[in-house]
């Protein structure tokens, strides 16, 4: 949205001045006419001629203004950065100096050939403005360039496709229309923030020395905070046969990457396919950010927006030989135990790297591999299509895996392959292998379901030592332990301590109430006799939860008086179906503010149009996920939003703040902020498959509903959303794959896709708890940052929460719908946990 805003505001000074001149000149002219008319009929002819001339002049000026002012505004400047390999040239040192005659000569040839390449494409030739070569590097010669196009509004996607087609054609068949032979092109559209004219820009070029470090810092560092509206780029190079190592020893930027950021590329131009990482926020010096390139070049860009002043950064650059042992990885491993890790661990691994370890242990033994740390970038695709670790014949892992993830092979040989692609790096992994006896995988120990072995006294001690809780299952609780309803045993002294240790609240029930009283989920006390009597005596109805009559609610609607209805979706349909009217009593939900007619496709939501939409921020930092209001104190989000990562404890309520009634991220001070009291992720959430991707958050205090804050209706457990039904998705997530988040809340309409079809499109990864929705031709979808937010469906003039944004394969790709958690499947669970 930012670029659009900027585009609309941009008005060249001279043409707007012209508008005012027009007004000044012609209003008096028509007044003159009236005055002169009174003076005498003889002059009428002259006046008519003058008026006509004036009108013609006004029309001409108007046309000119339209041509230069508005027509220009309807076009947007689009810059593609790219690199192209010139197969039939050899690198000479002078190519490093843009002022040398050799540089200029080759640059001119490259520009001429790019021009003739673009002229082959009808979509590109008409919008092409020109290209500029930024640098050359070794191998034969690689040219880095920027090409500029003036693209009329609405044609951007077509131009993107044409550029991609051209690049893949060059990769397939080469390009030799001129004297140069191009055999490999990588290019992508440049983020508008990297070329906005509103920013002061500085460009540097540095060559690593073998003896000393080169230092780069944000402007003003360490004496002053960095300035607003700055763009700085550093082209870094090393000698042939070397790679560059860049270590940030201080890094302190604003926490929101859509405001200020540093990007590190494995290239000399800012091309997305070689973006290693985008960084913002604070990084502790004890955990420095370290990058390694795959070749002898690297690009660092630093962008700041109009506000916020932070100290900035300092980084040191050195070059190391490609043969250095620092970069070595893979090989043959033996013995009965050992360890290995990804290159440069625990710093970022280099892009484009492949390592293979072949482990062979004594005959008759089997191998157990334990990853003490595992962080491998999945890239924009979720399912290990970016970087991965493959345990050949067993499994392929990527993303973030829990500490001490174990993989075993039932043989004495194991092959492990690590592969990184050209973009998005991460910290990698560290692994330990050891042998085990096939007959006794955990000698003298207890074996968890996840294959870990734990000391026997840790079993049934109330702590989850396995990591998957299997050491706490099937326990006989002794007198010093509480027997939780879900089968766990927890130490008695945890009873009534205000923490839900059992996970199902058993240890916190009947704490504050007198004998003979039942404590509701909201801590209210009601007479024990009222429990399961068919009436909701607790305000949250929890006295009727878990009762045998409750069984009806899985298949039908449960009225307040405990009666079940078989009518599908009776809630808030305008007809009283329950005797006690409870099906129509809680209908302050899902009312959408009126909005202008909409087109299918992403666009800005109107203010208050989706009053249940919540923006979840990491405290004092930035938007991370969406959520939906379901009551004064509860919101629903995705479980994957609340999983810990190495640096951030997403699972802790204290990490978060929720903004309700928010429209634009720029005005969060106008929204209602709440802290989080508790987070309940679904216990069967699976981080590998995204199954059961749903979580509940309780706000620290209730909110008062208003025009901008209102709950969405929850569907009943039996609701199904048929294929083809239109649903609405909303969020502040990225507006294109790999792009940055939106400032203003976005909305789009998509359609439910048949699950069988979807399962085929998504390689069999769809479970019955997932709903697919999208536009199969591509172009409309949720994306990174929309997670946890609502997929809403309109029924009886109210919006119901049909799904929660969960995952996808990239964003808005052809034949790749978005995947949503099916909320009806979790209706009973929501009721159980929240009483709503
Ligand atoms: N997992 C993403 C997030 O954390 C949401 C992805 C949705 N992707 C999609 N293509 N529908 O924000």
Q: What is the structure about, briefly put?
A:
With 836 residues, this protein is of the alpha+beta class. 15% of the residues lie in helices and 31% in strands.
Structure explained in plain terms:
- Among the domains are: 76-190, Alpha-Beta Plaits; 200-321, Spermadhesin, CUB domain (Jelly Rolls); 328-441, Spermadhesin, CUB domain (Jelly Rolls, Sandwich); 603-834, Beta Barrel (Thrombin, subunit H).
- The chain is built from nine helices and 45 strands.
- Strands 40-41-42-45-44-43 form a six-stranded antiparallel barrel. A six-stranded antiparallel barrel has the order 34-35-36-39-38-37. A five-stranded mixed sheet has the order 5-7-13-9-10, with no helix packed on it.
- Helix 2 packs antiparallel against helix 3 (44-73).
- Bound molecules: arginine.
- Arginine binds at residues 733, 781-787, 805, 807-808, 811, 818.
SSE layout and pairings?
Elements: H1 2-9, H2 13-39, H3 44-73, E1 75-86, H4 101-119, H5 122-125, E2 128-138, E3 141-152, H6 156-173, E4 182-189, E5 200-207, E6 214-217, E7 230-237, E8 242-252, E9 261-265, E10 275-279, E11 282-283, E12 289-292, E13 297-303, E14 312-321, E15 331-333, E16 337-341, E17 354-360, E18 366-376, E19 388-391, E20 395-397, E21 399-400, E22 405-409, E23 413-419, E24 428-436, E25 446-447, E26 453-454, E27 481-483, E28 489-491, E29 517-519, E30 525-527, H7 552-555, E31 557-558, E32 564-565, E33 603-604, E34 613-618, E35 623-629, E36 634-637, E37 656-660, E38 672-681, E39 695-699, E40 726-731, E41 746-753, H8 755-761, E42 770-774, E43 790-795, E44 798-807, E45 818-822, H9 827-834
Parallel strand pairs: 5-7, 15-17
Antiparallel strand pairs: 1-3, 1-4, 2-3, 6-14, 7-13, 8-11, 8-12, 8-14, 9-10, 9-13, 16-24, 17-23, 18-21, 18-22, 18-24, 19-20, 19-23, 25-26, 27-28, 29-30, 31-32, 33-41, 34-35, 34-37, 35-36, 36-39, 37-38, 38-39, 40-41, 40-43, 41-42, 42-45, 43-44, 44-45
Helix pairs in contact: 2-3
The structure holds arginine.
Keywords: Disulfide bond, Glycoprotein, Hydrolase, Membrane, Protease, Repeat, Serine protease, Signal, Signal-anchor, Transmembrane, Transmembrane helix
Domain SEA: 76-194
Pfam family, one: Trypsin
């Amino acid at each position: 949205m930012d670029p659009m805003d900027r585009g609309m505001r941009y008005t060249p000074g001279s043409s707007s001045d012209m508008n005012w001149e027009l007004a000044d000149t012609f209003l008096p002219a028509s007044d003159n006419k009236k005055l002169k008319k009174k003076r005498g009929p003889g002059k009428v002819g002259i006046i008519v001629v003058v008026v006509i001339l004036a009108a013609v002049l006004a029309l001409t000026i108007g046309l000119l203004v339209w041509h230069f002012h508005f027509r220009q505004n309807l076009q947007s400047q689009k810059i593609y950065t790219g690199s192209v390999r010139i197969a039939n040239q050899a690198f000479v040192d002078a190519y490093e100096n843009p002022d040398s005659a050799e540089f200029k000569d080759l640059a001119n040839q490259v520009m001429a050939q790019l021009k003739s390449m673009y002229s082959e494409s009808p979509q590109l030739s008409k919008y092409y403005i020109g290209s500029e070569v930024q640098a050359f590097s070794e191998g034969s010669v690689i040219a880095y360039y920027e090409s500029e196009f003036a693209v009329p509004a609405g044609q951007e996607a077509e131009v993107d496709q044409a550029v991609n087609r051209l690049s893949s054609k060059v990769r397939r068949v080469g390009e030799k229309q001129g004297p140069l032979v191009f055999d490999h092109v990588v290019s992508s559209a440049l983020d508008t923030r990297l070329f906005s004219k509103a920013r002061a820009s500085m460009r540097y070029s540095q060559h690593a020395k073998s003896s000393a470090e080169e230092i780069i810092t944000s402007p003003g560092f360490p004496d002053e905070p960095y300035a607003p509206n700055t763009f700085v780029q550093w082209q870094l190079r090393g000698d042939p046969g070397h790679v560059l190592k860049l270590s940030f020893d201080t890094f302190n930027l604003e926490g929101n990457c859509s405001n200020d950021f540093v990007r590190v590329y494995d290239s000399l131009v800012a091309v997305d396919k070689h973006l290693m990482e985008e960084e913002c926020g604070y990084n502790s010096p004890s955990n420095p950010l370290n990058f390694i390139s795959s070749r002898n070049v690297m690009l660092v860009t630093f962008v700041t927006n109009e506000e916020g002043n932070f100290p900035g950064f300092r980084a040191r650059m050195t070059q190391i030989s490609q043969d250095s042992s620092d970069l070595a990885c893979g090989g043959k491993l033996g013995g009965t135990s050992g360890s290995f890790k990804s290159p440069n661990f625990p710093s970022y691994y280099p892009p484009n790297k492949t390592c293979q370890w072949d482990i062979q242990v004594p005959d008759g033994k089997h191998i157990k591999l334990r990853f003490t740390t595992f962080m491998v970038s999945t890239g924009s695709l979720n399912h290990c299509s970016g970087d991965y670790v493959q345990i050949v014949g067993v499994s392929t892992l990527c993303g973030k895996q829990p500490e001490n993830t174990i993989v075993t092979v039932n043989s004495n040989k194991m092959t492990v392959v690590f592969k990184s692609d050209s973009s998005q790096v991460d910290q990698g992994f560290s692994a330990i292998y050891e042998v085990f006896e096939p007959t006794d995988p955990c000698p003298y120990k207890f074996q968890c379901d996840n294959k870990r072995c734990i000391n026997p006294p840790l079993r049934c001690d109330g702590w989850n030592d396995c990591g998957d809780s299997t050491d706490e299952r099937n326990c006989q609780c002794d007198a010093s332990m509480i027997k939780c309803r879900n089968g766990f045993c927890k130490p008695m002294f945890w009873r009534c301590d205000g923490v839900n240790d059992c996970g199902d609240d058993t240890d916190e029930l009947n704490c504050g109430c007198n004998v003979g009283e039942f404590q509701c989920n909201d801590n209210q006390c009601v007479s024990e006799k009222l429990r399961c009597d068919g009436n909701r005596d607790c305000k949250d109805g929890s006295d009727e939860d878990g009762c045998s009559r409750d069984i009806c609610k899985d298949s039908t609607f449960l009225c307040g008086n405990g009666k079940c209805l078989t009518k599908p979706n009776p809630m808030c349909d305008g007809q009283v179906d329950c005797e006690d009217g409870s099906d129509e009593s809680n209908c302050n939900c899902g009312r959408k503010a009126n909005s202008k007619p909409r087109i299918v496709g992403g666009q800005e939501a109107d203010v208050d149009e989706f009053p249940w939409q919540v923006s979840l921020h990491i405290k004092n930092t930035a938007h991370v996920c969406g959520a939906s209001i379901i009551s004064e104190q509860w919101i629903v989000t995705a479980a994957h939003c609340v999983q810990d990562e190495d640096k951030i404890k997403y699972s802790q309520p204290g990490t978060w703040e929720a903004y309700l009634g928010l429209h634009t991220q720029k005005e969060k001070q106008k929204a209602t902020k709440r802290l989080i009291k508790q987070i309940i992720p679904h216990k069967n959430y699976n981080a590998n498959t995204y199954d059961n991707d749903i979580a509940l958050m309780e706000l620290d205090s209730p909110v008062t509903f208003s025009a901008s804050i209102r709950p969405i209706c929850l569907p009943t457990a039996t609701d199904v959303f048929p294929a083809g039904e239109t649903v609405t998705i909303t969020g502040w997530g990225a507006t294109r794959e790999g792009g940055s988040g939106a400032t203003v809340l976005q909305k789009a309409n998509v359609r439910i896709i048949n699950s069988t079809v979807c399962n085929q499109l998504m390689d069999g990864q769809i479970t019955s708890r997932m709903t697919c929705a999208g536009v199969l031709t591509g172009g409309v979808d949720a994306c990174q940052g929309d997670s946890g937010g609502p997929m809403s469906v309109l029924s009886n003039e109210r919006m119901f929460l049909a799904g929660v944004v969960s995952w996808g394969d990239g964003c808005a790709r052809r034949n790749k719908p978005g995947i949503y958690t099916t909320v009806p499947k979790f209706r009973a669970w929501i009721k159980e946990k929240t009483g709503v």
